[in-house]
Amino acid sequence: MKRKKKIEYHSYTEGSIRYMSCMTCGRYETVGETATGVRCSRCVNMIMMKNYPLETKPSYVPTGRPPGWHFMKEFVDKDGNVFHRGKEVPKLKGTLSPTMVKSPKKRKIKRRTKEQMLVARHKEKKAVLKKAVKKQKDFINHNIDKG
Ligand SMILES: [Zn+2]
Questions:
Q1: How far is CA 74 from CA 82, 86, 91, 104, in A?
Q2: For a pLDDT cut of 90, what percent of the chain falls above it?
Q3: Chain segment 81-122, per-residue pLDDT in tens
Q4: What pTM did the predictor assign?
Q5: Beta 75-76 vs 82-84: how paired, if at all?
């Protein structure tokens, strides 16, 4: 039975250049004399992509402009650039105050708890019932008045 040695990456020299098998895919890569393990550039790239996927994506640059600003009749950005329906009007630059942009983040979303929802539903039911009772009473009264 052969005993497995510690991981040893296969290497060979050709002239004065040393090649070593890539730790990940096994392709030979030129290495320095002291290298004990190597990854080829392809695998390095792949690892980089895995570790830093955000860097390869186009990053979102906030413009400070609201969504749909270019549909607005008039929009002034924070630098004083004036746009009429998305078209810049350079002669108006700096003559108007920036359009106030309401941040959608400020809008509070109230989340009702299950209990609150039940209470609300109960109240609704009660109101409906009250109306029905009143209708009935009115009907009766009406009948009595008639009689
Ligand atoms: Zn590789």
A1: 7, 8, 14, 20
A2: 19
A3: 999 998 999 999 999 998 887 665 655 667 778 888 888 888
A4: 0.31
A5: antiparallel
Q: 7 C-alpha vs ligand 1 centroid, how far in Å?
A: 16
Task: Give residues whose Cβ lies within 5 Å of ion ligand 1.
Answer: 22, 24-25, 27, 40, 43
Structure tokens at 79: 């630098």
For ligand 1, the distance from its centroid to the CA atom of residue 36, given in whole angstroms, is: 15
In angstroms, what is the span from residue 39 Cα to ligand 1's centroid? 5
Residue 49 phi/psi, 5-degree rounding, is -65, -40
| 3-state secondary structure (DSSP) of residue 70 | helix
Distance 49 CA to ligand 1 centre (A): 14
